[in-house]
Amino acid sequence: MKKNVGSTDRIIRIIIGLAIGAIGYYYQSWWGLLGLIPILTALINFCPLYAPFKINTGKKTS
How confident is the model at residue 45 (pLDDT cuts 50, 70, 90)? Predict the structure, then answer.
C-alpha cells in the first residue's frame, strides 16, 4: 500500500472525522461512526478511493 494522503489532506480528514463523530454523539445517532472512516484513512495515510483515480496528495518524489 503506497501512501497517497498528504499532510494537509491528513489534517483535514482528522478534523472532518472528529466533527462528524461529535455531531453523531450530540444527536445520539450511530451515523457518527462514519467519522471513523476519514480518521482511519488519515492514520494509515492511504485512501482506497484515491487509488483507482491515481490521486496522490503527498509530496512529489523525483
Answer: very high
